[in-house]
Amino acid sequence: MVFSSPFFVYIFLPLLLLLYYVGKNSAWRRGILLVFSLFFYAWGEPVYLFLMLFSALINYIFGILVGKGKTPSARKLAVAGGVVLNLAMLGVFKYAGFAVESLNAVLGTSIPVPAIVLPLGISFYTFQAMTYVIDVYRENCPPQKSFSRLLLFITFFPQLVAGPIVRYTDIEDQLEYRRVSAKEINDGLYRFAIGMGKKVVFANTCALAAENLFASTAGPTVLSSWGGVLFYALQVYFDFSGYSDMAIGLGHMFGFTFPENFDHPYISKNVTEYWRRWHMTLGGWFRDYLFYPVMRSKLVTKLTKSLKKSGHKTAAKNLPTIIALTVVWFSTGLWHGASWNYVLWGVYYGAWLILEKFVLDKAYKRLPDMLSTIIQRVSFVFITLFGYAIFYNEQNLFTKLGHYFGIGTTGFTNVYSESMIYENGLLLIVALISCTPLAAFIMGKIRAKLNASLGEEKAYNIDRVFKTVVVIALFALCTVRLAGDSYNPFIYFKF
Amino acid sequence: MNEIYERLNQVFADVFDEDITVNASTTADDIEDWDSLTHITLISAIEEEFGMKFSMKEVVGMNNVGELADIVAARRKR
To answer: Considering the entire predicted model, what is its pTM?
Structure first.
C-alpha cells in the first residue's frame, strides 16, 4: 500500500486513527497498530508477510539468547547467529539471483537463475531488526520479553518499507508509553501533508521531466543527459525525503518520535557533508554497526600494530579508516540494489569520501576561502549528478555514462533537449528553491515576529490555523493530482 | 588524573597532527577534524596508550574528554 494513495489517505488512516483513539489502554492501542501494520504489509505482499513474521520470530529468539548468555563467548555466539540469519535472509531473497548471474558471467556457466521477487521493504526491516539484536549484545537495551512488542517494532507500517531506519533503542520506551494529544496529531498531519506534497507535486513531475529527457526520441545529447539527471536528482530527493516526512508524521499521530532522515542535503558543500544530511539513518547505521566493528576488528588492529612497528606511522593512522570506508561503501552500494551499478555507485562515493578526508580537505585549506568555496560547490554539483547517473542506469551503464561526455551522442544539444528544459524551467527553479531551508527560515522569522507582537498564545493559534489550511490545501491538491495521474511509485520501495 | 591528561594530550596531538591541549570539557565540536570517522582512530590510539579496551557502548556514549578520562581512571583502579 502506498501512503500517497486515496485508499490509504481516506480509508486506512482515518479508520486506524479512530480505532486507535477510542481505546485508552496501551495494550489495545498496540494491538490496533499491530493488526493494521500486518494488514498494510499483506495488502501488497500476502505471502511475504510470513517471511517478515519469521524474521521477527528469529530476532526475538536471538535477542533472548543474547540476553541469557552467561559468558562473553556465549553472548558473542548468539549475536553472531542472529546477524548471520538476518543476512542470510537478505542474501537469499535479495541477492541470490544477482549472485548466480554474476557467477555465470565470470565462470561462463549457465546455472539457472532463481526467480525470486524482492520482498517489499526487506532491506529496511532487516536492518532495523539487526539493530535490536546487536544493541542487546552491546548492552544498550535489555532483551524484549514480549513478542508482540518486538513484532510491532519490526512490522510498524510507517517506516516499514522505505525508512527512516528506526533503531529499536529509538522507540524502546515508546512501545510502552506514548504521549499523544491533539497537538501531536495536528503536527503529524502537517508533516504528513508536507511529505505528500513533496511526493505528488514535485517528485512525480520531476520524474516525468527526467524520463522525457532520458527517452529523447531525437537521440541523446550531452544536455539531455545532464538535464535528465538533474531532474532525477530532484525526483529522488522529493520522493525519498517526502516518504520520510510522511513516515515521521504518521509516527507522530500515534505518539512515536522517529529520527530525522534528511537535512537539506543538496545545500552541502562537499560529499562528506552531503552524507551527513542525506538518508541520515542509513549513514548512522553503517557507522555504528559496520564501520566501527571493522575498525575495531582483530584483523585491522593487528595490521595497524605491525605498520606502526615497521615505522609506517602515517599508514598506521590512515589505512584502517580507508579499509573500513571501502567495506562500508561497497556494502552501502550493494544495500541499494542487487546490481553492479549500485556497487559502483557506492564505491564511487567511498572513493570521494576518502579523497576528501585525506587529500582534498587539506588542499582546500591552502586556498583562499572564496576560491575554495566556489571550487567545492561547483564540483559537488557535478559529483552528485554523475553519482546519480551511475545510480540510475542499471542497464547499459557505460554507454549511458559516455553520453555525459559527448561519447555516442548526437551532439551537445538539439531542439528537443532544449525545448524540454524550457518547458520544465519553472518546475526546475521552484524545485531547486524548495530543496533549500529558505521556506523554513522565512516561517521561523514570521513566527518570531508574531511571538513578539501578539504573544506566544495568539501566535500559536495563528500557526495552528495556517497549518490546518496548508494540510487541507495539500490534501485537496494531491487528491486531484492522484486521480488524474498514473505515475506514483516510490523509488525506495525497490530497495 | 593529571598524568592521564598529559598522556591524552600526546595521543590527541599524534592523531590530529597538531598541538592540542584537552581538558575535561573538550568535545568533538572543539576540534575541527574530530568527526565520527576520526573518533574511532582516536579511541584505538587511546586504548593502545593505556593498554585497555573500551566497550562499544563506551565508545559511542562518550560526550567529552572528561568522561573519557573517567573511564580510563576507573578501568585502571580495577
So the answer is: 0.90
